[in-house]
Amino acid sequence: MRIARRTMEDAAVGIAYDEGVGAVTVDRVCEVAMVSRSTFFNYFPSLDHAIFGSPLVYDPALTERILRANGDDLVIAASRIVMESVRGQGDDELLRKRFALFAREPGTTTTVSWSAGTSRTGLVDVIEAWLDAHPASARLVDADHATEARMIVNFSITLGDEVMRLVGEDGGDFPFEPAVFRTVRERMLALSAPAR
């Protein structure tokens, strides 16, 4: 079963890597992997799952380490948690191609993040739990931690997309330098301030 799943993932990611995400279809994946459509849908609920992977599960030790290191900016922390969690799925050619897709095709990070409701909700829960345990980290005085966590994750999606675009332009590899996150975050802050 693992071999069949991996063969279909390799086909989906390979087509996306060679021709772009828009070129991937279930029929093409099935043809390359030599499986039927019904077999494909026995393994994957959607084409996005085959290309970009299953919903993320956040390791408590990893999230704690990242949140402690980036407690001053939970938007950066949330973005790094996602990127490190994706990286934690393995260190192989499939993963490298997935990261290359995110870096090469601007907007992919945002699209996948918004379509991956389970991953996004899990991250909101992680950030909310952190805020509950560390209320001094909260920035909003007029909102509960669930609201703040949701907003942090929404900002982190934008941050991640821009980090991937910037790294793609520079030809960088994962793990990305912390300075890249800070640069993008400073740009976000500048844009969010009203003009005077």
Q: Can you walk me through this structure?
A:
With 196 residues, the protein is mainly α. Helix content is 72%, strand content 0%. The protein has eleven helices and no strands. The mean pLDDT is 86.
Concise structural overview:
With 196 residues, this protein is mainly alpha-helical.
Strand content: under 5%
Helix content, binned percent: over 70%
Mean pLDDT: 86
Distance between the termini: 60 Å
Shape: globular
Low-confidence stretches: none
Question: How many H/I helices?
Answer: 11
Largest sheet: none
* Number of beta-strand segments: 0
Radius of gyration: 18 Å
Structural class: mainly alpha
Order of helices and strands: HHHHHHHHHHH
Protein topology:
Elements: H1 2-19, H2 26-33, H3 37-43, H4 47-52, H5 60-69, H6 74-87, H7 93-104, H8 108-115, H9 117-133, H10 145-170, H11 178-192
Salient structural properties:
196 residues, mainly alpha, 11 helices, globular
